[in-house]
């Protein structure tokens, strides 16, 4: 029984960490003023008839805070990349010079920054909900284990550990959101 409890605690912790990783990935996609290759990460290019991530058809980098440079490995796909960036509706206006694409990142307005903060907070709320759901599932499993013979004091100890895990992960979510909000609101 105690082995099942340990496995349950490990499982819960791993899934809470996965929720944190997902939050970190989503927060990277929220644009914070500085140009970053991750801003165009989700763009899918029509590469010989199949949608392909931009990172698989070109080298994407950011030489400075206001510019993303995309250099395709196959020059014939440069127009498809340009179309894909425009179609992704990211608010960018790519400039094609025949060998590479420059994507200037415009400075954001106060209103746009506030929208991005709201988006980041929404992602944080999704992460908190996931973590709380994992806590609830873990607590329910512990109650089942108690019904099937796990000593109650060990069950309570397990519930306390799950609550502690939950509190730690929620605090990490808050810290990530606070950092991202500062990053977004900095002009």
Tell the overall outline. Answer: elongated
Biggest sheet descriptor? 4 strands, antiparallel
Find the CATH superfamily of the largest domain.
Ribosome-recycling factor
* Percentage of residues assigned to helices: 55-70%
Q: What class, by secondary structure content?
A: alpha+beta
CATH architecture label name of the largest domain: Orthogonal Bundle
* Number of helical stretches of at least 4 residues: 4
How would you write the strand order of the largest sheet?
3-4-6-5
* CATH secondary-structure class of the largest domain: Mainly Alpha
Strand residues, percent: 5-15%
Low-confidence stretches: none
Order of helices and strands: HEEEEHEEHH
Number of strands: 6
- Indicate the radius of gyration in whole angstroms: 22 Å
Q: What is the domain tally?
A: 2
List descriptors.
single chain; 187 residues; alpha+beta; Topoisomerase I, Chain A, domain 4; Gyrase A, domain 2; 2 domains; four-stranded antiparallel β-sheet; two-stranded antiparallel ribbon; 4 helices; 14% strand
């Amino acid at each position: 029984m105690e082995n099942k409890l340990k496995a349950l605690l490990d499982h819960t912790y791993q899934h809470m960490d996965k929720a944190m990783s997902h939050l970190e990935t989503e927060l990277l996609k929220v644009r914070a003023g500085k140009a970053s290759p991750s801003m165009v990460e989700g763009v899918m290019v029509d590469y010989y008839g199949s949608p392909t991530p931009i990172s698989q058809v070109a080298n994407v980098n950011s030489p400075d805070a206001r510019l993303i440079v995309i250099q395709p490995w196959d020059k014939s796909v440069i127009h498809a990349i340009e179309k894909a960036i425009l179609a992704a509706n990211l608010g960018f206006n790519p400039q094609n010079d025949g060998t590479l694409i420059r994507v200037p990142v415009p400075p954001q307005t106060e209103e746009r920054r506030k929208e991005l903060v709201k988006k980041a907070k929404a992602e944080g709320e999704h992460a908190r909900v996931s973590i709380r759901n994992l806590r609830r599932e873990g607590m329910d499993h512990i109650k089942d284990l108690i019904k099937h013979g796990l000593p109650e004091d060990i069950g309570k100890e397990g519930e306390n550990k799950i609550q502690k895990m939950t509190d730690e992960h929620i605090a990490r979510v808050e810290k990530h959101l606070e950092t991202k909000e500062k990053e977004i609101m900095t002009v």
